[in-house]
Amino acid sequence: MTSGANWSAAFGEAAVSAMQVYDEVMVPRLFAPWAELLVDRLEIQPGEAVLDVACGPGSVTRIAAARSGAGGRVIGCDLSAAMLAVAGSKPAPEGAAPIEYREAAAERLPVGDAEFDVATCQQGLQFFPDRPAALAEMHRALRPGGRLGVAVWAEIPLCPPFAAIGDALEEVAGAELADRYRGGPWGFPDGARLEALVREAGFEDVRVSREVLPLSFEGGGAQLFATLAATPLAAEIGRFPEDQKRGLSDAIARRLGGGAIESHAESNVALARQPTDHV
Q: Who's near 253: CB < 8 A, 6+ residues apart?
């Protein structure tokens, strides 16, 4: 099993408390801005039906529902019951489409054929054990002419705060743990391969662009250290002696200059279309 697939399995078993850390620390600083970008690129229109795959705590799902409006329909699917519990606990955006959350693996989506105008997958594809199968399911779910939007993190050095975590882990805990961290969210950074996979799934008009957005952690290294609680490494790091935990937090801060962190992250964004003659 790849490191990304291990992360996926861990998310599937995660506790709600861990996903609340993810939602409180990571979503507003990292995932919400990228959700806006993906939804903007897809130009979701009022009344459209949207499928959000690997929806997590609803970052894309909720924005898509707001754009689709009361006449639309949105379904978010995720393997993690904890993620879906966090998503479902949030009040619906005013005037938004109704949202239904369903627990499911991306390779077996519990939706009908040709049911949606838009399918999205933000920062999920790298975790799937069978990426072609997941893309085939999104293809199946889209109507003729339907649009697909997929975002996948670029190489970890192009996301400096997380590169700093990886380097600090290697310093404090060794290369094996650091490599497992680096191989999770940043384990599929090849934009050309992403484009090929989308084409091979049967989509047309495939375009992959490299996008950059600012990223801030006003709480500095300590706040960035807290993001490890929402990873599959959390239990191992939790067993570190207190001085080793402090050493890891300090090593992260040292690499980023101390104080508030002002940086950026980069992602490959693939846009594509279901052929209009698809039946």
A: 220, 221, 222, 224
